[in-house]
Amino acid sequence: MSPAAGTRLRPSVVLVGAGPRGTGVLERIAANAPELYGDAPLDLHLVDPHPPGGGRIWRRAQSPLLWMNSTAEDVTMFTDDSVELAGPVRPGPSLAEWARAVRDGRLVVPPDVAADVAALGPRDFAGRRLQSAYLRWVYEDAVAALPPRVTVHEHRGTAVRISDGRDGRQQVWLAGRPDPLPADAVVLTLGHLESQPGTEERQLTDFANRHGLTYLPPAFTADSDLDALRPGEPVLVRGFGLAFVDLMVLLTEGRGGTYATGRDGELTYHPSGREPVLHVGSRRGVPYHSKIGYPPVGDRPPLPRFFGPTEVDALLARPGGVDFRRDVRPLIDKELGFAHYHRLFTAHADRTRMAWPDFEEKYAATEPGSAALQALVSAAVPDPADRLDLDALDHPLDGVRYADGAALQAGLRGHVEADLARRHDPAHSPDLAVFLALLSVYGQLVRLGDHGPWWHGFFSFLASGPPGPRLRQLLALSRAGVVRFLGAGLTVTADRDRGVFRAGSASVPGEWTEARALVEARLPEPTVARTRDRLLAALHAEGARATAGGLLAVDPADGRILDRSGRPHPRRFALGPHTDARGSGAFTRPRTNAPAFRQNDASARALLTFLRDRTAPPVPVPAPPSRSDDAADR
């Protein structure tokens, strides 16, 4: 039915993706609406095949064995006064504070997570189903905070296309629905997406099909068909990050195995007999570093120091563009080094030979990686273990060779044990300072667009590793022979003569492992060109710009989607890992000026301003004279 003369359609916004990023944008709309939009009417349509709050990745319908990789006190969805934003701070509880409110009887949770809430301490790692309950509560809290004339409509479906209407309004088409959702603006908060296989993945899939093998391409582990991996069979696993940890859990405890703690505190794994044998390797050959197992103490390093807004402004103003390795990496190295040595000198001065002001002055004057810097550090920091070596951190097994597979197993267990000991010892608190510097660097990099694959991998390796208890389980599985390490520089080939997969590494030259199953333990690359998301693929095909790395290009100021000429679409926004402004996560630890929160606020304010400026009071328009029956007959 057409709107009556002299009236306007209710303004509407479609948010595609109702997981934590979509929830964060909704929270910022609620926070900013009173200032920027007043009490005007607005329809907010949330489109997602999964329930709002958790979305797909954090949905409740997944194994209770899967954990978060951050402690409860380090997870929040709410802004605080550390966040640099134009909108109002709207405080709210961290996951730990929310759980405490539940225990105190101030909040109610679903019965199936009540026991988990009761057992959760601030330094514990919550299960993902519990995080899903927290995210659902945040979503409901954001909806309740919206002005009275804002209505939220939930659509449990999949958006497949956006088209421009004749009046400039957007039309969002949903799978299986004949009519589109009309929208004055659209916000894509799609989260992690599936991708079409690349050339190697297609070749390995074809090889597996021809020889009756099992090949599992990159995917969110909780959605993979692990039933194809048979008990007792060797399985090659390429990837040693968090996707591997999920795989390890689901194929061991998930198949009935158990752990027991001995008097010495060492874990022992008791197999169920249903586990495959996981042969795991990667480019680095080691698991991600353990999460730090002690609370922060003392002053935080004053960040940013060498890589802040001023430096980013200067980079963006360069006429020839920015080369990451040449222009950005030295600033990152200097920032991480500053945080490390600030903490070492101010908290562990007995391990230094120079006053901090003197070191800081000399450090500021030296170039990263220079001989002068090496000489300064050698003179001021006597123990090499207290010196920051980013290359050694990034490639811990470079140049390390083992005599055979047995030596490799012992060597890798030693590496994991040393990492666990260091990450749980506050005597090494410069590691925590570097972690905070990594977060600070990520907050600056979002303004520089797509900076290639190295940074995200490096950040994840140092800052997004598994909880310490998971690595202790990994050690127990290694001792039980359920997990076997392959080493660094992993090479996987398809042996056409033998009809098997073969894996070898630089860590044990000449030694190969054969298997009839291969698993890619990693998420798909967030590439627009090969995405399986129909909506994103259609946007790209119709002119949305993608970076050289395959990410959707957006305006760093407010998240508007750019076309191939670099012009922002006035009504289309995108936030999240598929964009070149991706941050370190949709939620983060409190008081870290999280880039996602800053982006959410900027996009919400741009959206509300756009709606306000285009929602003038209706202008009365005289209705045309009614036609008589006679006129109609003529």
UniProtKB/TrEMBL annotation:
Span list, region Disordered: 563-593, 613-634
Domain FAD-dependent urate hydroxylase HpyO/Asp monooxygenase CreE-like FAD/NAD(P)-binding: 14-192
Official protein name in the record: FAD/NAD(P)-binding protein
